[in-house]
Amino acid sequence: MSSYAKVALSVGFGAAFVGYLGLLYMPPRIEIHINDTIFYMSQAHDLTQHRPIQNHTYPTGYARILALTGIDMGRPWYRVVLINLVFLSVGLASTYKLLPPALGLSNREAASICLMSLFSWLFISYAPKQLPELTFFGTTCASLFCLSKVMAKEGRPFWAFLGGGIFGCVAILVRSVGVALLPVMLYVLLAKVDRKILRWAFPILCALGLVLGLTFRHTIMSPAYSEALTDALRQPGSTLLDTALWRIQEVGEVGQNVSQIAFEPREQLSYGDEKTNRVVPLLPETGHSYGALLNLQAQATAYVVGALFWTLIGFALWRKRITVVDVYLAAYLFILMVYRCGEVRYFVPIVPLVLAYAWAGTKALPFPVPRWCVASYVAVFILFGTIAMANEWTIAFVDREQSYQAFDDIVGVFQHRFSRGL
Q1: Any idea where the domains of the chain sit in the sequence?
Q2: How confident is the model at residue 153 (pLDDT cuts 50, 70, 90)?
Q3: Distances (CA, A) of 296 to 170, 263, 301
Q4: How many angstroms from the chain centroid is the CA of residue 23?
Q5: Using CA atoms, how far apart are residues 139 and 91, in angstroms rounded to an integer?
Q6: Biggest CA pair distance of the chain
Q7: CA triplet 318, 320, 324: central angle to 5 degrees?
Q8: Predicted confidence band of residue 128 (pLDDT cuts 50, 70, 90)
Q9: What are phi and psi of 56, to 5 degrees?
Q10: Mean local confidence (pLDDT), 217-241
Q11: What residues form DSSP beta bridges with 297?
């Protein structure tokens, strides 16, 4: 690694550290259009009150982590952000170790991917939220790192597989889509089995996987997700078309690092109405704002960038050797393709993988890509990320008091509900 690259990476990581450190000062926030925050808040409240969880809309693993660290009704909020930052660090440290053997990248390239991930508007905007995306990212990457050690026969394979299984179980408890790790564990096990045994064992394993999948769907998966999956499977044609367009656009938003959410300063988007005992959404006025125009432009270019990224990912996957990261990414994307819902937040746990596979794809092209093109892209990506970080700092240091008041109103509504047993 050249001295110039080392200095650039050091400055970049230092700036990212300062930026994320400032997010610890973020005021409590609940954005009503992502009302999962409210569900996790109520789950953690039940646990801190030493009573059974009443709301099982989502898995309870993240709420248990919140309760374990003494967070009740979103307070103290800096601990919410700190939990996200801890798991973000674990995930990126694991990713840094995973990428070179999985994709043939150098340590400098792996470090560049991690730096770009830190400046991704998705990581920046989700770090101060009471949502499990970054916790899931950290646990899945840690599981993949342990399982990769088993495949590489480094250290003690048994303990590495056990560690991968433990982190995998935590990931599933945090988010249902963590079941994408099960094919990875199966792949690691089968890689150690003689092929003659595999021939007769394969049908049994497929049947066992089907039984486990159905059991998971009817016991652990929430009814809302199960019903949505049933509706999607009844309309496979339209489901694939809709999800394909969504996934192209969402990957484009990851790749271009531009979003209205990341660029337009915003205030608390909901408040608690004491008269009606309801949480009421505040719809932002975007008719004449630069954010609305930017959003239209970002959506249009996202399809182009997304198609380019998917092409590069395809080139990166065109390799003879399959790794645990390949299996996980394939399983994760398969779940997204059969689940008929479009939200870019589903890509938060795989932001570094999307960037890394696209990066590897540029190296696998039949023609060389000039270094200045890659360097320019990285610089623009980080510039957009800096603007996204500035937006979050605006909320933390400028709109702080208003956000506190809105959150206090919301908490008051929910405390009144809890006192009535609702």
Answers
A1: 14-419
A2: confident
A3: 38, 13, 9
A4: 18
A5: 7
A6: 70
A7: 90
A8: very high
A9: -110, 30
A10: 61
A11: none
**Whether 229 contacts 361, CB under 8 Å:** no
First to last CA, the chain: 59
- Amino acid present at 131: L
Closest CA to 85 of 150, 20, 39, 33: 20
* Residue partners of 290: CB distance under 8 A and separation at least 6: 264
CB 41 within 8 A of CB 23: no
State the chain's mean pLDDT as an integer: 83
Coil, strand or helix at 70: coil
Structure-token pair, residue 14:
């230092």
SS (H, E, C) 210-232: HHHHHHHHHHCCCHHHHHHHHHH
The better pLDDT of the pair 233, 386 is held by 386
- CB 176 within 8 Å of CB 346: no
Distances, alpha carbon 77 to alpha carbons 23, 197, 417, in Å: 10, 53, 21
Query: Taking a C-beta distance cutoff of 8 angstroms, is the pair 57, 40 a contact?
Result: no
At 7, list the tokens.
């200095």
User: What element of type H or E holds 273?
Assistant: strand 270-273
Query: What 3-state class would DSSP assign to 242?
Result: helix
Identity at 224, one-letter amino acid code? A
Question: Is-contact 282 269, C-beta < 8 A?
Answer: yes
Q: Give the span between the Cα atoms of 136 and 347, in whole angstroms.
A: 11
User: Which among 416, 400, 395 is positioned nearest to 279, based on CA atoms?
Assistant: 416
Q: In sequence order, which residues have a C-beta less than 8 Å from that of residue 223 and are 6 or more positions away?
A: none
Per DSSP, the residues of 130-194 read S-SHHHHHHHHHHHHHHHHHHHHT-S-HHHHHHHHHHHHHHHHHH-GGGGGHHHHHHHHHHTTS-
CB 47 within 8 A of CB 71: no
Give me the numbers of helices (H) and strands (E) for the chain, helices first please: 18, 2
Alpha-carbon span 196 to 216, nearest angstrom: 30
Q: Residue 273: its pLDDT value, please? A: 66
CA-based nearest residue to 73, from 103, 49, 51: 49
What is the DSSP code string of 80-141? HHHHHHHHHHHHHHHHHHHHHHHH---HHHHHHHHHHHHT-HHHHHHTTSS-SHHHHHHHHH
Q: Which helix (DSSP H) or strand (DSSP E) does residue 353 occupy?
A: helix 351-364
Instruction: Classify residue 352 as exposed, middle or buried by CB count within 10 Å of its CB (0-12, 13-18, 19+).
Output: buried
Residue 28's SS3 state is coil
CA 349 – CA 247 distance, rounded (Å):
14
